[in-house]
Design a protein that fits this description.
single chain; alpha/beta; Rossmann fold; 2 domains; six-stranded parallel sheet; 16 strands; globular
């Protein structure tokens, strides 16, 4: 008789980011990896819900878009209470298969993928930050323990982002994606001293640490003093895209929705912030005279305005000549179709922990122009055209080459899918299984 599969849980922080990008994508694919491996899984959220009532009321409250973050004084007073997680319930009143297809302004069932039990600890992330600050004042910051109400802890707990939290009673694995707040403090809005203290506490208390590239691994080891044997690079899983449409239908879709033709535009994908180096990319593009438009997709950060200074028309969404268009944040399905039909993806980022848009484009067979710094050379190999991201002229010349040289572009289009296959879900699962084995958790027999 087979043993029951181990219980392996993860947090829902990345999944709860409405209009999330990199961390949300990592979390979604990690959840799929654990589910597909056959583990008994649950997602632990930190929604601000001091629940009362029966199981149906708790389930409805969990998905209620009116949930509000409590004021600081209530969070501070709550430190005297133990942090307990409760099941969201299995009443089934909320149909998790049904959710809106467009970009969402509030938490919805789309942020709770099916196949996992749901648990919630009231305002877990906000309370943890306050508690961590208090313990720092008393000496050294400590991770806040969370305990499950009415259930034993799982065999392992995954945390997908940096938080001063641990699930009591089991080994905790924390993912640190990069060291951007330390390497590039001028682009990040984080409290840098607090980020460093939290990362150092995770390095002390975690059973193991994951990251998403060798570059990030080296940075975290050198900056935080993490012993090499306690941190593993699993890379980020990048599964094949699910368009929902065949090639002809997706071509017609972007033509009707955005007025774009197959291979008739260049694409910049990612949030608009100084780290993404968009201002130089726009300067480079404008100097080329390329008639094909440059399409920008991604939400704006708090310091996005200088990056979009050339967009002076239509409420800051178009350049004066109409060649540059900012479409803002789009649903994943639209993004996949725009990548699929772009002439090139322009991704001149100054620093990436992994570089997900570049891999997504390579997987589609779209030529990639990217940077020769941070993790990007390691990730794209020789399957993308790399330049110095601080050299605007080099960016312009590279874009001109991809726009006009059919043979060059075809070479990168052909090389991309094979390179992207290095980051397949199957390879990620094998790397993750090796980490779990070191912590005494064996994968179910059906796992890769």
């Amino acid at each position: 008789m087979r043993n029951q599969p181990a219980r392996v849980w993860m947090d829902g922080f990345g999944l709860s980011i409405v209009n999330g990008t990199g961390i949300a994508t990592y979390s979604r694919h990690l959840a799929a990896t654990l589910r597909d491996a056959g583990f008994e899984t649950a997602l632990l959220y930190g929604r601000p819900l001091p629940w009362r009532g029966d199981a149906m009321a708790r389930e409805i409250a969990f998905f209620d878009s009116r949930a509000r973050t409590p004021p600081f004084w209530r969070r501070a007073l709550a430190q005297a209470l133990p942090q307990r997680a409760l099941p969201v319930g299995g009443h089934g009143v909320v149909d998790r298969r049904l959710h809106a297809a467009g970009a969402r302004a509030a938490f919805s069932p789309a942020e709770a993928p099916p196949g996992h039990a749901l648990w919630n600890a009231n305002d877990m992330y906000g309370r943890a930050l306050i508690r961590f600050g208090l313990t720092r004042l008393l000496g050294r910051g400590r991770l806040m323990p969370v305990r499950l109400a009415g259930a034993p802890p799982p065999a392992l707990m995954h945390w997908t982002h940096l938080h001063p939290l641990r699930l009591a009673g089991c080994p905790n694995i924390h993912t640190l994606h990069d060291a951007i707040p330390l390497r590039m403090p001028w682009v990040a809005l984080d409290d840098k001293a607090g980020w460093r203290a939290c990362a150092e506490a995770v390095a002390r208390e975690a059973a193991h640490i994951l990251t998403v590239s060798e570059h990030s691994r080296r940075d975290l080891i050198s900056l935080l003093g993490i012993p090499e044997e306690r941190i593993t690079n699993t890379y980020q899983p990048v599964p094949p895209p699910d368009h929902g449409f065949d090639h002809r239908m997706s071509r017609e879709r972007i033509a009707a929705a955005y007025g774009l033709s197959d291979k008739g535009y260049h694409l910049c994908l990612g949030s608009v912030d100084p780290r993404k180096n968009l201002a130089r990319m726009l300067d480079a593009y404008m100097s080329t005279g390329i008639p094909r438009p440059l399409i920008l997709v991604g939400g704006k950060s708090a310091n996005a305005a200088p990056e979009l200074r050339l967009l002076t028309e239509a409420g800051g969404t178009r350049s004066a000549d109409g060649r540059i268009r900012h479409l803002g944040y789009l649903p994943r399905e639209d993004v996949a179709m725009l990548i699929r039909h772009a002439r090139s993806l322009c991704f001149p980022s100054l620093y990436e922990g992994f570089g997900l848009p570049a891999v997504e484009a390579m997987l589609e067979g779209t030529a990639v122009l990217t940077s020769n710094v941070s993790s990007l050379p390691e990730v794209v190999g020789d399957a993308a055209l790399m330049v110095d991201p601080t050299d605007t002229r080099a960016l312009a010349e590279a874009l001109l080459a991809l726009d006009s040289d059919e043979d060059l572009r075809a070479r990168y289009e052909a090389a991309g899918p094979a390179r992207a296959a290095l980051f397949s879900p199957e390879r990620h699962a094998a790397r993750l299984a090796a980490v779990h084995a070191r912590l005494g958790v064996t994968w179910p027999e059906a796992a890769p």
